[in-house]
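Progress narrative, work stream C.
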Amino acid sequence: MALASSRVHAHSASPLAGNIPPVLIGTLLAVAFWPILKSMFGSWFDPPSNMEHGILVIPAAGFMVWRKRVKLSQIPRTHSAWGLFFVLWGAGQASLGMAAHWTWISRTAFLISLTGSIAAVYGVGVVRELAYPLATLILMIAPPTFLYERFTLDLQLIAGRLGADCLELMGYPVLREGNVLEMVGIKLSVEEACSGLRSLVSIVFLCVLYNHFFVRGNLTRAVILAMAVPIAIIGNVGRIVMTGVVGQHNHELAGGFAHEALGYISVVAAGIGCIALHFLIVQIRKMWRPRQA
């Protein structure tokens, strides 16, 4: 029985899988998808796309994989026919996306082929263990444009209305017309960047990193990710309020570099808000457990 078991294990384990280094797989995929990857890398440095965090996604995912190196070494390496299926799926999707100029479709095809390659060479167990880092890589791809077109205006109006209410509570007279706020001597226009949608991806990335390293429990992680949306809106309302207050004292500071700097500050403040939310959940759990006991 022991001899038969060892034979089965020797047959299921793939000697080829153990001999192919991950660097070779990554290189082959990079060569095959180079036009798509080049376009994606360029979007990280394109100001209108607001994807500055994209350059940090790959190192962050790589560090997550490195932390799992002990568990990965203990997983038997096997071939998976499903892996080859997903490799071909990714290739077909990339071709379709490039032919139809569907940017998001072609870029996500790379992740599909990457996942398929890992499954084909190393097995489904390795993919299962790498699910979190692989899912994190989605954040290096700018969301599809139809999402911006669908939600940007609504979020602009919400941010503008909340910003005007906050300024009035602080004693500043404000006249709001749609997404335009008129104050004494200045006129603030709540543009797309102030809607909260474009900074949302960066805030979600911060939440994903924080969840991986500091949060335990899938429910708590899900709550923090879900709250990233209102936190992003609140952060951009704070940006509008700060711009309005600063603009009342110095009109030149209401735009240009100072306004952009406030945008980065709002993202950092939103990240701090996610951390504060986690600590609040932890404290509530500590208070709730003795009552249940």
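Work stream C, second folded protein:
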Amino acid sequence: MPEGRTRVSEDEQRHETRIADALKARPAGAPAGEATETVFRLDDVHVYYGSFLALRGVTLDVHGNEITAFIGPSGCGKSTLIRCLNRMNDLIPGARVEGKIEYHSQDLYGDGVDPVEVRRRIGMVFQKPNPFPKSIYENIAFGPRVIGMRPDSMDDLVERSLRGAAVWDEVKDKLKQNALALSGGQQQRLCIARAIAVSPDGILMDEPCSALDPVSTARIEDLMEELKRDYTIVIVTHNMQQAARVSDRTAFFTAEAAEGSGDRTGLLVEYDRTDSLFTHPADKRTEDYITGRFG
């Protein structure tokens, strides 16, 4: 066998071993049985930016108290789709959604639905930590104050949110300090605390660990496992080992040329329970991607 092909095979074998190790590392309590309540239901969803079709024909259900991962190569529409789930794409001129997205059986884009209320109920954590240039305390208190929450004690709400994001012990003695002085991993957990301070139903995470070191990434992954007891979580990640470690279900997307057009558009290839998708993918495109032979 040619030397080059031997190297590729060895790389593929190491890649598959890392995926297998990640699946073995999944928490023992990760659900593997019956489906929980359907929180989001997507039916034939198309997303456009002006005349450009960015994502086409997505149909899937997102279940409560689970972690759902969106994986796939760059440009396949993962971030576009996750932003549809709390109407963040409304803020982009020319963006529009066709098809149907239901949230607890209610049309998320129906007449009379307030997108601001949608974003309160469905929090968002971005790729790069983005704390406000305020104190740690004010970062958490800001959201509840803006939406008019009246907690019995704002101090208790701040502490509860920081504890919920597993960062309280690290910041409890410096709540008045500027949040920008925290490390990257601490800032990201602060942003998660800020998201849960307004009592959301779900949390969307768009590559939340891509800018973090391995130790901080492990802490965020552990935190996601804890948070799914109270929240529905959808995560976009380029890290397949991360998806294998933390998610209950995984959706694999790719980008292909649309019919009659040279433009590449995103589409959902396969959606299944994570262990099934990574060990017995039904589509060769999925298999090629998770074994490192894609493209």
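The domain at 3-108+117-290 is CATH 3.40.50.300 (Rossmann fold). No further action is required on this item.
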